[in-house]
Amino acid sequence: MASTDDVPVEFEQQGDAVVLRPSGEIDLARSPSLRTTISRAQTDKPRRLIFDLTEVPYMDSSGVATLVEAMQVARRYHGSVILCGLHERVRSIFEIARLDMVFKIVDSLDEALLA
Amino acid sequence: MTADPHVKIDMLSQPRYLAGARAMIASVARRLGFREADCAHVALALDEALCNVIKHGYGKREDEHIWISVWPLEGQCCGIRILIEDRGRQVEPSEIRSRQLDDIRPGGLGVHIISQVMDRVQYDKRDGGGMSLLMEKHNAAEQSMPQARKEPA
Fold this sequence. Notes:
The complex is a heterodimer.
Chain A: E1 9-14, E2 17-22, H1 31-41, E3 48-52, H2 61-76, E4 80-84, H3 88-96, E5 104-106, H4 109-114
Chain B: E1 7-12, H1 18-31, H2 36-57, E2 65-73, E3 79-86, H3 110-117, E4 120-125, E5 131-138
Antiparallel strand pairs in B: 1-2, 2-3, 3-5, 4-5
Helix pairs in contact in B: 1-2, 2-3
């Protein structure tokens, strides 16, 4: 039986971009699962890693930390991380942590793919 | 704290229960008349505070206890008061601070987030061991108590 602490994540390859579409709340219980998935996705060093957060209604600082870690890994191999589809509650935590100026954040997946 | 809390919860220090704690406090805040965005901030502050206890107070041990007490704030200053207590590692309250935000690295944001979304934040050492965190949020949207909120028929 899958643990409810696992974050379901859809993968999609679009050109040189890998799109990750996690779903559900991401907190301290569930961010380790997301971290594992991201780590697997970054094995092949995709030039662009896009997180479509449309299906993530809540994220705490442990989820944010997971994405910061992904961004740092991507920078090491000259890749980039783009976030899209953020709910207001999720966007708010990036603003409070002043990370909205650090991450590339766009509204939609279409914009992310063009970024 | 003079009066008994209106809500008191004893939870184990397991991250799996964070979602339940968030749902509880958001629901209480909603009944106290907070706007939805403020309910979300109260829930976020509680989540971050509990995460800090689990990670730093208890070193991720999952068989310890965390006590959450909740009071409505009434009178001139409507709102909510939350007290979080643990029996974890004690630190000097003056040493509890956020990392520099321009130092971009994973982690270390919880204290900053709590201070940004709540109106009063006070850390103390508990006499019996562990720490306490008192947080208050005032309700700018409502100056009256929950009876003012109409329930759907």
